[in-house]
Protein backbone atom coordinates (compact mmCIF):
# COMPACT_ATOMS: atom_id res chain seq x y z
CA UNK A 1 0.00 0.00 0.00
CA UNK A 2 1.04 3.60 -0.47
CA UNK A 3 0.39 5.49 2.74
CA UNK A 4 0.73 9.03 4.01
CA UNK A 5 1.72 9.35 7.67
CA UNK A 6 1.44 12.87 9.04
CA UNK A 7 3.40 13.46 12.23
CA UNK A 8 5.56 10.46 11.36
CA UNK A 9 8.56 12.07 13.08
CA UNK A 10 6.70 12.14 16.40
CA UNK A 11 6.60 9.52 19.11
CA UNK A 12 3.68 7.35 18.01
CA UNK A 13 3.87 8.21 14.29
CA UNK A 14 7.51 7.10 14.10
CA UNK A 15 6.72 3.71 15.65
CA UNK A 16 3.81 3.15 13.26
CA UNK A 17 5.97 4.22 10.29
CA UNK A 18 8.63 1.74 11.36
CA UNK A 19 6.14 -1.14 11.31
CA UNK A 20 4.63 -0.06 7.97
CA UNK A 21 8.04 0.17 6.26
CA UNK A 22 9.08 -3.15 7.81
CA UNK A 23 6.13 -4.91 6.23
CA UNK A 24 6.85 -3.40 2.82
CA UNK A 25 4.42 -0.49 2.52
CA UNK A 26 5.50 2.62 0.64
CA UNK A 27 5.35 5.41 3.20
CA UNK A 28 5.43 9.18 2.82
CA UNK A 29 5.99 10.99 6.13
CA UNK A 30 5.03 14.63 6.55
CA UNK A 31 6.13 16.51 9.67
CA UNK A 32 6.80 20.15 10.49
CA UNK A 33 9.46 19.07 13.05
CA UNK A 34 8.07 21.45 15.68
CA UNK A 35 7.84 18.49 18.05
CA UNK A 36 9.04 15.69 15.80
CA UNK A 37 12.61 14.58 15.11
CA UNK A 38 14.01 13.97 11.64
CA UNK A 39 16.13 11.11 13.01
CA UNK A 40 12.99 9.30 14.19
CA UNK A 41 11.77 8.80 10.62
CA UNK A 42 12.58 5.45 9.06
CA UNK A 43 15.27 6.01 6.38
CA UNK A 44 13.21 4.16 3.77
CA UNK A 45 10.20 6.46 4.17
CA UNK A 46 10.03 9.52 1.91
CA UNK A 47 10.20 12.59 4.13
CA UNK A 48 8.37 15.85 3.43
CA UNK A 49 9.28 18.67 5.82
CA UNK A 50 6.13 20.74 5.83
CA UNK A 51 3.16 22.05 7.71
CA UNK A 52 -0.43 21.06 6.95
CA UNK A 53 -1.44 24.68 7.47
CA UNK A 54 0.52 25.60 4.32
CA UNK A 55 -1.02 25.12 0.87
CA UNK A 56 2.36 24.29 -0.70
CA UNK A 57 2.82 21.36 1.71
CA UNK A 58 -0.55 19.96 0.67
CA UNK A 59 0.38 20.38 -2.99
CA UNK A 60 3.70 18.59 -2.45
CA UNK A 61 1.92 15.76 -0.69
CA UNK A 62 -1.02 15.31 -3.01
CA UNK A 63 -0.20 16.54 -6.53
CA UNK A 64 0.11 13.52 -8.76
CA UNK A 65 0.03 11.13 -5.79
CA UNK A 66 -2.48 8.40 -5.02
CA UNK A 67 -2.64 7.09 -1.48
CA UNK A 68 -4.35 3.93 -0.33
CA UNK A 69 -4.66 5.43 3.12
CA UNK A 70 -3.71 8.23 5.49
CA UNK A 71 -2.70 7.98 9.13
CA UNK A 72 -2.96 11.38 10.78
CA UNK A 73 -0.82 11.93 13.87
CA UNK A 74 0.41 15.48 13.27
CA UNK A 75 -0.85 17.67 16.11
CA UNK A 76 0.03 19.51 19.26
CA UNK A 77 -0.61 16.92 21.95
CA UNK A 78 -0.37 18.38 25.45
CA UNK A 79 -3.53 18.63 27.51
CA UNK A 80 -2.01 21.10 29.95
CA UNK A 81 -0.60 23.35 27.25
CA UNK A 82 -3.99 23.38 25.54
CA UNK A 83 -5.53 25.00 28.63
CA UNK A 84 -3.00 27.84 28.33
CA UNK A 85 -2.71 28.07 24.55
CA UNK A 86 -6.16 26.94 23.39
CA UNK A 87 -5.85 28.26 19.82
CA UNK A 88 -2.97 25.94 18.99
CA UNK A 89 -5.51 23.20 19.56
CA UNK A 90 -8.89 24.68 18.60
CA UNK A 91 -7.50 26.40 15.50
CA UNK A 92 -4.15 24.97 14.36
CA UNK A 93 -4.84 21.29 15.07
CA UNK A 94 -8.35 21.54 13.68
CA UNK A 95 -7.34 23.48 10.56
CA UNK A 96 -4.51 21.07 9.85
CA UNK A 97 -6.94 18.16 10.17
CA UNK A 98 -9.49 19.93 7.97
CA UNK A 99 -6.93 20.75 5.27
CA UNK A 100 -5.76 17.17 5.23
CA UNK A 101 -9.28 15.74 5.13
CA UNK A 102 -10.26 18.08 2.33
CA UNK A 103 -7.26 17.03 0.24
CA UNK A 104 -7.96 13.37 1.07
CA UNK A 105 -11.59 13.73 0.02
CA UNK A 106 -10.65 15.50 -3.24
CA UNK A 107 -8.24 12.69 -4.09
CA UNK A 108 -10.76 10.06 -2.97
CA UNK A 109 -8.34 8.48 -0.51
CA UNK A 110 -10.26 5.39 0.63
CA UNK A 111 -9.20 5.14 4.30
CA UNK A 112 -8.24 7.50 7.07
CA UNK A 113 -6.94 6.58 10.52
CA UNK A 114 -7.10 9.37 13.07
CA UNK A 115 -4.98 9.61 16.17
CA UNK A 116 -7.51 10.57 18.87
CA UNK A 117 -7.52 10.60 22.64
CA UNK A 118 -9.04 9.42 25.93
CA UNK A 119 -9.23 13.12 26.78
CA UNK A 120 -12.68 12.89 25.15
CA UNK A 121 -13.85 11.38 28.45
CA UNK A 122 -13.43 14.00 31.14
CA UNK A 123 -15.54 12.41 33.84
CA UNK A 124 -16.26 8.84 32.85
CA UNK A 125 -19.50 7.43 34.26
CA UNK A 126 -18.25 3.85 34.02
CA UNK A 127 -14.88 2.15 34.32
CA UNK A 128 -13.27 0.71 32.32
CA UNK A 129 -14.26 3.23 29.65
CA UNK A 130 -16.17 1.86 26.67
CA UNK A 131 -16.97 3.57 23.38
CA UNK A 132 -20.55 4.12 24.59
CA UNK A 133 -19.23 6.59 27.18
CA UNK A 134 -20.64 10.04 26.35
CA UNK A 135 -18.01 12.29 24.75
CA UNK A 136 -17.15 15.23 26.98
CA UNK A 137 -13.75 16.65 26.02
CA UNK A 138 -11.62 17.55 29.01
CA UNK A 139 -9.59 20.29 27.32
CA UNK A 140 -9.15 22.25 24.08
CA UNK A 141 -6.86 19.38 23.03
CA UNK A 142 -9.67 16.83 23.38
CA UNK A 143 -12.18 19.23 21.85
CA UNK A 144 -9.99 19.72 18.78
CA UNK A 145 -9.60 15.97 18.33
CA UNK A 146 -13.35 15.56 18.63
CA UNK A 147 -13.92 18.19 15.94
CA UNK A 148 -11.62 16.29 13.58
CA UNK A 149 -13.43 13.03 14.41
CA UNK A 150 -16.68 14.74 13.43
CA UNK A 151 -15.22 16.08 10.18
CA UNK A 152 -14.11 12.54 9.39
CA UNK A 153 -17.68 11.43 10.13
CA UNK A 154 -18.97 13.86 7.50
CA UNK A 155 -16.45 12.70 4.90
CA UNK A 156 -17.63 9.19 5.62
CA UNK A 157 -21.28 10.14 5.22
CA UNK A 158 -20.88 12.37 2.17
CA UNK A 159 -18.14 10.51 0.35
CA UNK A 160 -17.95 7.06 1.82
CA UNK A 161 -14.39 7.59 3.10
CA UNK A 162 -13.69 4.75 5.54
CA UNK A 163 -12.52 6.16 8.86
CA UNK A 164 -11.32 4.99 12.20
CA UNK A 165 -10.54 7.16 15.21
CA UNK A 166 -8.30 5.49 17.73
CA UNK A 167 -8.72 7.07 21.14
CA UNK A 168 -5.45 6.49 22.92
CA UNK A 169 -4.90 6.08 26.61
CA UNK A 170 -1.30 6.53 27.90
CA UNK A 171 1.20 5.48 25.24
CA UNK A 172 4.54 4.49 26.77
CA UNK A 173 7.66 2.44 26.10
CA UNK A 174 9.83 2.25 23.00
CA UNK A 175 10.75 0.03 20.08
CA UNK A 176 12.47 -3.15 21.36
CA UNK A 177 15.55 -2.42 19.22
CA UNK A 178 16.01 0.91 21.00
CA UNK A 179 16.53 3.03 17.85
CA UNK A 180 13.31 5.04 18.32
CA UNK A 181 11.54 6.14 21.48
CA UNK A 182 9.93 9.01 23.34
CA UNK A 183 11.60 12.44 23.21
CA UNK A 184 9.43 15.44 24.06
CA UNK A 185 10.97 18.86 24.74
CA UNK A 186 10.13 19.86 27.34
CA UNK A 187 9.20 16.46 28.72
CA UNK A 188 5.99 16.35 30.76
CA UNK A 189 5.05 12.65 30.72
CA UNK A 190 5.45 10.52 33.80
CA UNK A 191 7.54 7.56 32.55
CA UNK A 192 10.24 9.54 30.69
CA UNK A 193 10.49 11.98 33.62
CA UNK A 194 10.94 9.12 36.07
CA UNK A 195 13.67 7.65 33.86
CA UNK A 196 15.40 11.03 33.66
CA UNK A 197 15.67 10.86 37.45
CA UNK A 198 17.23 7.39 37.12
CA UNK A 199 19.70 8.82 34.59
CA UNK A 200 20.70 11.54 37.05
CA UNK A 201 19.25 14.30 34.85
CA UNK A 202 16.65 15.27 37.47
CA UNK A 203 16.82 15.06 41.23
CA UNK A 204 13.36 13.77 42.01
CA UNK A 205 9.90 13.21 40.64
CA UNK A 206 6.86 15.08 41.95
CA UNK A 207 3.75 12.97 42.38
CA UNK A 208 0.81 15.14 41.41
CA UNK A 209 -1.54 14.42 44.31
CA UNK A 210 -1.86 11.54 46.76
CA UNK A 211 -5.41 12.26 47.88
CA UNK A 212 -7.36 10.80 44.97
CA UNK A 213 -10.04 8.17 45.69
CA UNK A 214 -7.73 5.32 44.58
CA UNK A 215 -6.12 2.57 46.71
CA UNK A 216 -2.80 4.44 47.15
CA UNK A 217 -4.19 7.95 46.59
CA UNK A 218 -2.31 8.62 43.32
CA UNK A 219 -3.90 8.73 39.85
CA UNK A 220 -4.47 5.54 37.91
CA UNK A 221 -3.78 5.42 34.17
CA UNK A 222 -3.86 2.80 31.45
CA UNK A 223 -0.28 2.60 30.10
CA UNK A 224 -0.17 0.90 26.72
CA UNK A 225 3.07 -0.19 25.08
CA UNK A 226 3.69 1.94 21.98
CA UNK A 227 4.35 -1.24 19.96
CA UNK A 228 0.92 -2.65 20.91
CA UNK A 229 -0.61 0.68 20.02
CA UNK A 230 1.23 0.78 16.68
CA UNK A 231 0.20 -2.79 15.86
CA UNK A 232 -3.46 -1.87 16.38
CA UNK A 233 -3.16 0.92 13.77
CA UNK A 234 -1.93 -1.48 11.15
CA UNK A 235 -4.64 -4.04 11.87
CA UNK A 236 -7.27 -1.28 11.75
CA UNK A 237 -5.94 0.02 8.45
CA UNK A 238 -6.19 -3.45 6.92
CA UNK A 239 -9.55 -4.33 8.48
CA UNK A 240 -11.48 -1.15 7.65
CA UNK A 241 -14.17 -2.13 5.17
CA UNK A 242 -15.22 0.18 2.35
CA UNK A 243 -17.32 3.02 3.72
CA UNK A 244 -16.98 1.92 7.33
CA UNK A 245 -16.71 4.37 10.25
CA UNK A 246 -15.42 3.45 13.70
CA UNK A 247 -14.19 5.02 16.90
CA UNK A 248 -12.31 2.70 19.26
CA UNK A 249 -10.68 3.07 22.65
CA UNK A 250 -7.09 1.95 22.54
CA UNK A 251 -5.52 1.01 25.85
CA UNK A 252 -4.12 -2.06 27.56
CA UNK A 253 -7.20 -2.44 29.76
CA UNK A 254 -5.03 -2.40 32.90
CA UNK A 255 -4.66 0.48 35.33
CA UNK A 256 -1.54 1.42 37.30
CA UNK A 257 -1.06 4.23 39.78
CA UNK A 258 1.70 6.83 39.72
CA UNK A 259 3.23 5.08 42.75
CA UNK A 260 3.09 1.73 40.88
CA UNK A 261 5.05 3.34 38.03
CA UNK A 262 7.66 4.63 40.46
CA UNK A 263 8.03 1.26 42.15
CA UNK A 264 8.37 -0.57 38.85
CA UNK A 265 10.91 1.97 37.54
CA UNK A 266 12.98 1.49 40.71
CA UNK A 267 13.05 -2.27 40.06
CA UNK A 268 13.88 -1.91 36.36
CA UNK A 269 16.61 0.72 36.77
CA UNK A 270 18.03 -0.21 40.19
CA UNK A 271 17.93 3.51 41.05
CA UNK A 272 16.12 4.75 44.20
CA UNK A 273 14.22 7.47 42.23
CA UNK A 274 13.35 9.88 45.04
CA UNK A 275 9.80 11.23 44.95
CA UNK A 276 7.98 14.03 46.71
CA UNK A 277 4.26 14.56 46.91
CA UNK A 278 3.00 17.71 45.26
CA UNK A 279 -0.43 19.21 44.66
CA UNK A 280 -2.86 17.76 42.13
CA UNK A 281 -2.38 18.81 38.50
CA UNK A 282 -5.40 20.67 37.14
CA UNK A 283 -7.68 18.59 34.98
CA UNK A 284 -6.34 15.14 36.00
CA UNK A 285 -9.16 12.61 36.48
CA UNK A 286 -8.51 10.03 39.24
CA UNK A 287 -8.79 6.96 37.01
CA UNK A 288 -8.67 6.40 33.24
CA UNK A 289 -8.70 2.80 32.04
CA UNK A 290 -9.86 1.60 28.63
CA UNK A 291 -12.33 -1.13 27.89
CA UNK A 292 -10.61 -2.51 24.78
CA UNK A 293 -13.06 -5.38 24.15
CA UNK A 294 -14.62 -3.78 21.07
CA UNK A 295 -11.22 -3.27 19.44
CA UNK A 296 -10.20 -6.81 20.33
CA UNK A 297 -13.38 -8.29 18.84
CA UNK A 298 -13.01 -6.27 15.65
CA UNK A 299 -9.30 -6.82 15.01
CA UNK A 300 -8.47 -9.97 16.95
CA UNK A 301 -6.00 -7.66 18.70
CA UNK A 302 -4.89 -7.87 22.28
CA UNK A 303 -1.92 -6.16 23.89
CA UNK A 304 1.19 -8.30 24.08
CA UNK A 305 2.37 -6.35 27.12
CA UNK A 306 -0.10 -6.34 29.97
CA UNK A 307 2.11 -5.22 32.84
CA UNK A 308 4.27 -2.16 33.46
CA UNK A 309 7.57 -4.03 33.57
CA UNK A 310 8.14 -4.57 29.81
CA UNK A 311 6.86 -1.09 29.04
CA UNK A 312 9.25 0.60 31.44
CA UNK A 313 12.11 -1.77 30.50
CA UNK A 314 11.79 -0.84 26.81
CA UNK A 315 11.63 2.87 27.67
CA UNK A 316 14.72 2.46 29.87
CA UNK A 317 16.56 0.75 27.02
CA UNK A 318 15.82 3.76 24.78
CA UNK A 319 16.71 6.38 27.39
CA UNK A 320 19.96 4.66 28.37
CA UNK A 321 21.09 4.43 24.76
CA UNK A 322 19.99 7.98 23.98
CA UNK A 323 20.31 9.97 27.21
CA UNK A 324 20.00 13.24 25.30
CA UNK A 325 17.23 11.94 23.02
CA UNK A 326 17.49 12.35 19.27
CA UNK A 327 20.34 14.38 17.80
CA UNK A 328 19.07 17.72 16.51
N1 LIG B 1 2.30 12.68 36.83
C1 LIG B 1 2.94 12.92 38.03
N2 LIG B 1 4.12 13.62 38.01
C2 LIG B 1 4.69 14.06 36.86
C3 LIG B 1 4.05 13.80 35.63
C4 LIG B 1 2.85 13.11 35.66
O1 LIG B 1 2.46 12.54 39.10
O2 LIG B 1 5.76 14.70 36.92
C5 LIG B 1 1.03 11.92 36.81
C6 LIG B 1 -0.14 12.66 36.20
O3 LIG B 1 -0.81 13.42 37.20
C7 LIG B 1 -1.00 11.52 35.69
C8 LIG B 1 0.02 10.43 35.33
O4 LIG B 1 1.22 10.79 36.02
O5 LIG B 1 -1.83 11.02 36.71
C9 LIG B 1 0.31 10.35 33.85
O6 LIG B 1 0.61 11.66 33.39
P1 LIG B 1 1.17 11.94 31.94
O7 LIG B 1 1.43 13.42 31.85
O8 LIG B 1 2.29 11.01 31.66
O9 LIG B 1 -0.01 11.52 30.97
P2 LIG B 1 -1.57 12.00 30.93
O10 LIG B 1 -2.32 11.04 31.81
O11 LIG B 1 -1.62 13.41 31.39
O12 LIG B 1 -1.92 11.83 29.49
Protein traits:
14 strands, 328 residues, alpha/beta, globular, binds uridine-5'-diphosphate, 3-stranded mixed β-sheet, single chain
Outline:
By secondary structure, this protein is an alpha/beta fold.
| Percent in helix | 25-40%
**Shape by Cα distribution:** globular
Strand count, sense and barrel status of the largest sheet are: 7 strands, parallel
Order of helices and strands: EHEEHEHHEHEEHEEEHEEHEEHH
Calculate Rg over CA atoms. 19 Å
Distance between the termini: 31 Å
Unreliable stretches, pLDDT < 50, 5 or more residues? none
**What's the average pLDDT?**
97
| Derived structural class | alpha/beta
**Total strand count, please?**
14
Strand content: 15-25%
Bound ligands, each once: uridine-5'-diphosphate
The order of strands across the largest sheet is 3-2-1-4-5-6-11
Number of helices: 10
Describe this structure in words.
- The chain is of the alpha/beta class.
- The chain is built from ten helices and 14 strands.
- The site of uridine-5'-diphosphate has 15 residues, from α6 and β8.
Sequence-ordered SSE layout with sheet pairings:
Elements: E1 2-6, H1 11-22, E2 26-31, E3 46-49, H2 55-62, E4 69-72, H3 79-84, H4 86-106, E5 111-117, H5 140-159, E6 162-168, E7 170-172, H6 190-198, E8 205-208, E9 220-221, E10 223-225, H7 226-239, E11 245-250, E12 256-257, H8 258-269, E13 275-278, E14 287-288, H9 293-299, H10 308-321
Parallel strand pairs: 1-2, 1-4, 2-3, 4-5, 5-6, 6-11, 7-10, 8-13, 9-14
Antiparallel strand pairs: 9-12
The structure holds uridine-5'-diphosphate.
Uridine-5'-diphosphate binds next to helix 6 and strand 8.
Amino acid sequence: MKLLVTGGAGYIGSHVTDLLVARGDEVVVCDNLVNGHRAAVHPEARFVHGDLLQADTLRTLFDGQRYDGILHFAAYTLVNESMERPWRYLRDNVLAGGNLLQAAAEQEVPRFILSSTANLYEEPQRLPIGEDEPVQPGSPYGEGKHMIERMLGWMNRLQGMAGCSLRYFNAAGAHPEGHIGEDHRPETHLIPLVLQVALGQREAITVFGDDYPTPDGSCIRDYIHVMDLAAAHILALDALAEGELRACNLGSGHGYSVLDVLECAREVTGHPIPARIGPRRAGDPAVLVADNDALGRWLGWSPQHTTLQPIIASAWNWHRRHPQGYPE
